[in-house]
Design brief:
By secondary structure, the chain is of the alpha/beta class. It folds into two domains: 12-81, Orthogonal Bundle (434 Repressor (Amino-terminal Domain)), CATH 1.10.260.40; 89-272, Endonuclease, Chain A. Helix content is 51%, strand content 12%. It is built from twelve helices and six strands. A six-stranded mixed β-sheet has the order 3-2-1-4-5-6, with helices on both faces. Strand 4 and strand 5 form a beta hairpin. The longest helix is centred in the middle third of the chain and has 17 residues, at 135-151. The chain is elongated. It starts with 11 loop residues before the first helix and ends with a helix.
Length: 275
């Protein structure tokens, strides 16, 4: 019988497969035995163990049940899936999907929750061209944006308060058609009953309290959580004594930003190509 030697250090996917094989053999099961317990073919299990097939969320959960690992394989799957994302971001996304209030501030780009599909694709494709991520990771980023947007369209929807730095709406992304559609989408977003939209214009200068993107979530139990990121890492903060000053600064940002009506008028002028 040919047995492929596994190198778990090769990649997160290889580590997943090696762990499946190790635990399967610890139980004294063949691939057929595990396949029967998980509802897959033995060929599929073999392909996952050797890294020829990527695990799915469904397979990961069934492996956790069959091998009694307490969710370990699902966590490994999420690491594989979100490996190109900043530390803390995958966990943040889970909380974002159940938040009752979302306060966000973005610099330089339109935030994911407000992006059109074409805008998201241009950003992902650009990252691939720069060699920052792989095509597969780009596809995962695009999929994640869709999932995040779907999660906040639940009933009842969360209150979303968005303040965008003026650079976000003036920075060209893609061709003019992509930007026109994106700006139109922002106008439509602002018209929703559960949203507040503002632009922090350049003239705020030193009065702008944030230099980097930040989000503050209010969860169903009214607890607060913040997420902030730099170019290299993200930080999820749960301690109220650290989150409250960020919330205060966010309120100061809103007070200094343009009103929603003036913000929409600015975007409409940009959309029409007028000064």
């Amino acid at each position: 019988m040919n047995r492929k030697e596994l190198n778990p250090d090769e990649s997160p996917q290889a580590a997943f497969g090696a762990q499946v094989r190790s635990l399967r053999e610890r139980h004294g099961w063949t691939q057929e035995d595990l396949a029967d317990r998980m509802g897959y073919s033995s060929t599929h299990i073999s392909s996952v163990e050797t890294g020829r097939k990527s695990p799915t969320l469904r397979l990961s959960r069934r492996a956790d049940l069959a091998l009694r690992t307490g969710g370990m394989f699902e966590r490994m799957w999420r690491e594989i899936r979100h490996g190109s994302l900043l530390e803390g971001f995958p966990e943040f996304v889970g909380h974002e999907g159940r938040a009752v209030e979302i306060r966000l501030y973005e610099v330089g780009v339109i935030p994911g929750l407000l992006q059109t599909p074409d805008y998201t694709s241009v950003l992902a494709e650009s990252a691939v061209k720069r060699g920052a991520i792989t095509p597969d990771q780009a596809a995962e980023r695009i999929s994640l944006v869709r999932e995040r947007q779907a999660a906040v369209k639940r009933t009842p929807p969360p209150l979303i308060l968005a303040v965008l730095d003026e650079s976000s709406i003036r920075r060209p992304v893609g061709d003019p058609a992509v930007m026109e559609a994106q700006l139109t989408s922002l106008i439509e977003f602002a018209d929703l009953p559960n949203t507040v939209f503002q632009v922090a214009e350049f003239s705020m200068g030193h009065r702008r309290p944030f230099d980097l993107p930040v989000t503050v979530l209010t969860l169903p139990d009214r607890s607060l959580m913040s997420y902030a990121e730099s170019a290299q890492r993200g930080h999820l903060e749960r301690d109220t004594k650290f989150v409250l000053p960020i919330l205060t600064a966010y309120h100061q940002l809103q007070a200094g930003a343009l009103s929603q009506d003036v913000s929409i008028a600015m975007i409409d002028r940009l959309r029409k190509g007028t000064p």
